[in-house]
Amino acid sequence: MGAKAIQSLKPIKRIHAHLCAFHFYAHDMNRQVEAHHYCTHYNQDMRQCLIYDSPEKNARLIGVEYIVSEKLFQGLPDEEKKLWHTHEYEVKGGILFMPGVPKVAENKELDEVAKTYGKVFHFWQYDRGDALPLGLPQLMMSFTEDGQLNPNLASSVEKRFGVSFKENAEGRKHITGPSMGIHPSSNPWLKGIGLKPELREVDLKEKL
């Protein structure tokens, strides 16, 4: 409490939005988790978000997501693009929402998000029961069509937050995705490419 009264905590105070969504492991779509994003506009073309497992005061910080504009994404190297996912379906499908925000304001914000790309790593695999953030960071992805999200997970969130994903989708039919269409290098799992970080030991010819 003393530190809170004295220190500015400026980066944290710049958080302007809370978005609830779902992520799955880039190498295993069956492992799906609820993800609460607390986001800051770093600049006009990028948001940076802290990811928690819930909106409660004792929530676990499980990851970080960077969200960039279509313009920034298009400028990335092709090898880098495969680490990123789209947000168009999350928004238009109704499964991404802003708890407690009126629909008009929510849709205005999400109209921008639908055109972006995200890169997210989770550090804490709480879905497998880990008591601490163990192992390597895990690359995560987002959903791209109906039928992918676990219905039990979906209904649990709808009930707890008093939302309807179907109604959300109905009210977002006017929203559009990236102006150039979804880049084929994003969402690599759609092409059967599962990505899982690995740590390898290699011999270096030169001393560090």
From TrEMBL:
Entries under Pfam families matching the protein: DUF1264 (PF06884)
InterPro entries: OBAP-like
Protein's UniProt name: Oil body-associated protein 1A
Family: Belongs to the OBAP family.
